[in-house]
């Protein structure tokens, strides 16, 4: 396998190319650019860095950060309110569960569907007093 020479790679990056935009109807050159691979890589990298920087600054310096879930922003008052709402919701769920159980048991009692209790007396051996 042929190794890529650093000089040949650098030469390929510096080779100049021409990009021509033409009018399809008249074949008139509208715009032409002199480009190299290196200038395209640098341009795209710069564009990427600028877009990332703008996005980060938009999130950090505007109120948009408060609408992003999981970022952890928000004022302390909202966080306290969320915690209190969660506690209240959990306690309401427990209360509803207890009431549902109570109503189910009450319904069983009113319908007469009580479970049969075992009322047989068990014959257990008596323990002898060994305290002498």
Structure characterization notes:
This protein has three helices and two strands. The chain is mainly alpha-helical and 132 residues long. It is elongated, with a radius of gyration of 40 Å. 0% of the residues are buried. A two-stranded antiparallel sheet has the order 1-2. The protein folds into two domains: 59 residues, no CATH class; 37 residues. It starts with 5 loop residues before the first helix and ends in a 21-residue tail after the last helix.
Topology:
Elements: H1 6-14, E1 16-22, E2 29-36, H2 37-61, H3 76-111
Antiparallel strand pairs: 1-2
Quick overview:
By secondary structure, the protein is mostly helical.
Largest sheet: 2 strands, antiparallel
Q: What's the oligomerization state? A: single chain
Percent of residues in helices comes to 40-55%
Dominant shape? elongated
How many H/I helical runs? 3
Number of strands: 2
Structural class of the secondary elements?
Answer: mainly alpha
Query: How much β-strand is present in the residues?
Result: 5-15%
How far apart are the termini?
Answer: 100 Å
Strand order of the largest sheet: 1-2
H and E order:
HEEHH
What does the average pLDDT come to?
86
- Poorly predicted ranges: none
Count of discrete domains? 2
Radius of gyration: 40 Å
């Amino acid at each position: 396998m042929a190794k890529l020479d650093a000089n040949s790679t650098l030469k390929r990056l510096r080779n100049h190319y021409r990009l021509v935009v033409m009018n399809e109807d008249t074949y008139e050159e509208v715009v032409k650019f002199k480009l190299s691979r290196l200038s395209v890589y640098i341009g795209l990298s710069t564009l990427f860095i600028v877009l990332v920087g703008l996005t980060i600054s938009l999130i950090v310096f505007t109120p948009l950060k408060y609408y992003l879930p999981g970022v952890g922003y928000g004022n302390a008052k909202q966080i306290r309110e969320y915690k209190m709402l969660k506690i209240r919701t959990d306690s309401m769920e427990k209360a509803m569960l207890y009431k549902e159980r109570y109503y189910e048991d009450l319904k069983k009692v009113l319908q007469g569907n009580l479970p049969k209790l075992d009322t047989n007396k068990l014959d257990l051996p008596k323990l002898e007093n060994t305290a002498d």
